[in-house]
Amino acid sequence: MSALIFQKSKYCVLKLHQNLPHKFLAPEIYEMYQIEWYDYLEKIRRTIGGKTWIPDTQVIVHLNDKFIGNHSDLFDFVNQNFTINLPVDTEFYENLINESFKKFVDNPDLYSDKLRHTCEYFINLCQGDKIKKNDQYLCYKNSTLHRIVKDRWLQLGDLGYENNFIDETTIVAENHLISHDRRGVLSLANDGKNHNGPQFVVSLNPNPWMDNYYVAFG
Fold first, then answer.
1. What are the C-alpha distances in Å from 8 to residues 15, 65, 83?
2. What is the pTM of this model?
3. Which of 19-33, 112-126, 158-172 has the lowest mean pLDDT?
4. Domain PPIase cyclophilin-type, which positions (predicted)?
């Protein structure tokens, strides 16, 4: 999602469909974050091989379910057969990256009807203007992805402080109504019995053992 060449390729195939709908159906485009991409690339290299082994490959292109290559092969195919003018300004594609991230942030699937306080807590930390620690507002901005358990989960939201007691930066575990039954479930990490802190977990696969331990809310 954050690669300029991916955004250029995406724009190119959308233009093909827009200008030549009788030749090209609406493209199927899969935007991935880095860890998802590396997992996908590893799998496709095992099954297809060939050009997928080109270093720093950031785009995989299929036409009519047939693998044709990476972004260079896509642009060669387009230039040889059609006339499509693509923007050359890097800033144009950087804006597309920002739009993609904004859509992701603005449209989270949060269970605010079932976990109102938990969702408010998470949103406040995203916005960074409500929760304080040592007279400083806490915010996820510039925090790091500090733990990756392959094919299991990601842990994020380490705000750089240790908390050994319950205070205004923690929240009572609201309930355990939402199951960790699929990829993409969002939950707060445990910060002591029946309490949660800012750190959160994104499940990469079902993690049923988390159901009575972490509070899933999205």
1. 11, 21, 15
2. 0.56
3. 158-172
4. 109-218
